[in-house]
UniProtKB/TrEMBL annotation:
Organism, as annotated: Candidatus Dactylopiibacterium carminicum
Domain Cupin fold metalloprotein WbuC cupin: 1-80
Name this polypeptide is given: Cupin fold metalloprotein, WbuC family
Gene3D superfamilies: Jelly Rolls (2.60.120.10)
Cited InterPro entries: Cupin_WbuC, RmlC-like_jellyroll, RmlC_Cupin_sf, WbuC_cupin
Length: 149
């Protein structure tokens, strides 16, 4: 199933795909596999609800996690790998993004449900939206933070 999910991510225009483990988006805990490929742009965002902490656990590949302050300045970067640092816990209200650092990157995401789409206030106003002209160069800048690793 994980191989098929990675193949779907490679074929997706967004270069990522998820597979829910929970039966309904209304469940109290959202558990999902995320497959992401290099070049996929995840707009920096945060989850404002006090119960929306999220945990990312690596299964395959390498993932860069980037944390930002409210003005969009990078405050921390973390490289997660299936054979090394294997996860991160992100508190509510923390601006963050991720970049795939290797083909076939897969992680498990766990956060409180029910599923609620990001609001405008949870999307970083200082970062390009997905599918805009600036998104590709911004994603490349984020990925370059990990070039020496």
């Amino acid at each position: 199933m994980l191989d098929a999910l990675s193949a779907e991510a490679r074929q997706s225009s967004r270069l990522r795909r998820n597979r829910n483990l929970h039966a309904s988006t209304d469940e109290a805990v959202q558990r999902l596999f995320n497959a992401i490929e290099p070049g996929s742009y995840v707009q920096p965002h945060c989850h404002l609800a006090a119960d929306k902490a999220e945990t990312l656990l690596m299964l395959r590949g390498r993932l860069g996690v980037i944390l930002f302050d409210d003005a969009g300045r990078i405050t921390q970067v973390h490289e997660l790998s299936a054979g090394g640092c294997a996860g991160v816990h992100l508190q509510p209200g923390l601006w963050h993004s991720v970049v795939a650092l290797a083909p076939g990157t897969l992680f498990l995401e766990v956060k409180a449900g029910p599923y609620v789409p990001l609001t405008t206030a949870e999307r970083a106003p200082w970062a390009p939206m997905e599918n805009t002209a600036d998104a590709s160069s911004y994603q490349a800048m984020l990925s370059a933070l990990f070039a020496a690793s």
